[in-house]
Structures are given as structure tokens and as C-alpha cells.
Design brief:
Blueprint: H1 7-30, H2 37-50, E1 54-55, E2 67-71, E3 74-76, E4 91-100, E5 103-112, H3 118-135, H4 144-156, E6 161-162, E7 168-170, E8 177-181, E9 198-201, E10 204-206, E11 212-214, E12 221-223, E13 229-231, E14 234-237, E15 244-245
Antiparallel strand pairs: 1-4, 2-4, 3-12, 4-5, 6-10, 7-8, 7-9, 9-14, 10-13, 11-12, 14-15
């Protein structure tokens, strides 16, 4: 069942989203060649707790870190490690969530480490823009899969593979709520969107195939052909007009 948030709940989620946006900005400024993915995780947790929040991901279903740090062909859920070092030219996806007074916000970004290739920069930009193409359809009275199809149309026009094994989701008191939100083409229209719904929309896009595989840690998802992958996510609110992005400053 998809929950409709009250004004008081929306106010708390706005604050959670604002804090998470600040977390991402601080992490973005910190990324540099030579740091480890564990360095990012430790810094991220420190920042989140410094804002009086709890990391959404830490120990969630057994996930052992506060920030999902995924490098190059890693799509999502990369586990931070002291020996996983970032190098010039890498791209790194950071997926983070915060709990503020019992309510979650969830957002992801992909960043370049130092100078990156034109190919990598284009993938990051297309993935980000696909989110914005999708939320053009995120309006009261439209259908959920209007968002899915808009994201897919945009990404596939560049020849990219939109990951199908992982999807976006509703969000609120729980990190993952109904509905599931695919980023790939759907035949069915999906539920009708209503004012007060809060959704985490998160295209995950590979430079090559849409197919993915799980590593032996049972968490880290990689592109099946080893191609680069990018991730962009925000928590949004359906309103009676344009959607409100809660996780952008």
C-alpha cells in the first residue's frame, strides 16, 4: 500500500532531504585520488551524525556501512574497504540515506575522481538528466510508469543499458516502501500518482549492457560486461503541480 504523507510528515522529510543534500555536497568536496572507499564511508557517517541524523543504510538488512560506495563498473551497494583506493580517472557512485526524527531521505550521485574520460563524463551527465526527464512525468494524476518510460527513452537514445534488476521505491518512515519504481520500459501504466506520495527515483545506467551480476559479498552489483555504471537518485514529493525534489539544496 502506498502511503500519502501528512503535512507534518512532509516537513520532517524536507528537513531530512536538506540534510542529505548537504552530506552529498561535503562528500563531493572531499573526494580525491588516493583516498579509500572506507575513508568515504567513515567521513559520511561522521557528517550524517554531525547533523543529528542516523545513517539509513548502516546494518540495514546486514549492510555493514553507512555509505554505499561503488567504483567504475560497480552499479550499487559497493562495500567500503580500506584497500579499495580511488585513482585519477575513476568514477565513484555514492548512495546515502539519513533518518531524521524517524523519517528517511535517500539520494545517490556519481562523481569523477580527478580528470575523467569524456565517455565517463557523458555517462554521468546522461544518467543525471534521465532523472529529470523522468520527473517531468511525476505529477498528480499521471501514472507511475510514465516516469519509468521517460527515463528509459532518454537513456536508451544514447545506447546505454538501463539496469532492470534494481528499481526505485517509495520512502518515508521506512527506507523502502511501496511502490517499486522501475527505470526501464513498462507495458502496464502502474498506479496513479497522488499528491503527498514520496518517492525515491534512481536511474542506474550502464555504458554497455543492462545486465548485472552480484559479487561474492552478496551486496556489490556490477555491470555484467565490465562497462562503467552511473547512479543518480533523489527523494521527491508529488504535489498538485511540479514535483518537489527534497534532496537538492
Amino acid at each position: 500500500m502506498v502511503s500519502i504523507k501528512s503535512q507534518s510528515e512532509i516537513a520532517l522529510m524536507r528537513e531530512a532531504g536538506k540534510i542529505l543534500a548537504k552530506v552529498h555536497e561535503e562528500l563531493k568536496d572531499a573526494i580525491r585520488p588516493g583516498m579509500s572507499t572506507l575513508d568515504i564511508d567513515r567521513l559520511g557517517e561522521k557528517i550524517i551524525r554531525g547533523y543529528g541524523c542516523i545513517p539509513s543504510f548502516l546494518n540495514y538488512n546486514g549492510y555493514p556501512a553507512s555509505i554505499c560506495v561503488s567504483v567504475n563498473d560497480e552499479v550499487v551497494h559497493g562495500i567500503p574497504h580500506k584497500d579499495h583506493i580511488l585513482y585519477e580517472g575513476d568514477i565513484v557512485s555514492l548512495d546515502a540515506g539519513v533518518i531524521y526524527k524517524g523519517y528517511h531521505a535517500d539520494a545517490a550521485r556519481t562523481y569523477g575522481v580527478g580528470k575523467i574520460s569524456d565517455e565517463a563524463a557523458k555517462l554521468i551527465e546522461v544518467t543525471k538528466q534521465s532523472f529529470f526527464e523522468g520527473i517531468k512525468m511525476a505529477k498528480d494524476g499521471n501514472h507511475l510508469h510514465d516516469i519509468s518510460n521517460a527515463i528509459a527513452d532518454y537513456c536508451e537514445s544514447f545506447g546505454y543499458g538501463v539496469v532492470r534488476d534494481l528499481v526505485g521505491h517509495g520512502i518515508g518512515k521506512n527506507l523502502h516502501e511501496d511502490p517499486q519504481i522501475p527505470n526501464f520500459h513498462q507495458r502496464r501504466r502502474g498506479i496513479k500518482l497522488q499528491k503527498g506520495m514520496t518517492l525515491a527515483i534512481e536511474p542506474m545506467v550502464n555504458a554497455g549492457t543492462y545486465e548485472v551480476a552480484w559479487l561474492d559479498d552478496d551486496w556489490t552489483v556490477v555491470s555484467d560486461d565490465g562497462s562503467l555504471s552511473a547512479h543518480y537518485e533523489n527523494t521527491i514529493l508529488i504535489t498538485d503541480g511540479e514535483p518537489e525534489i527534497l534532496t537538492i539544496l
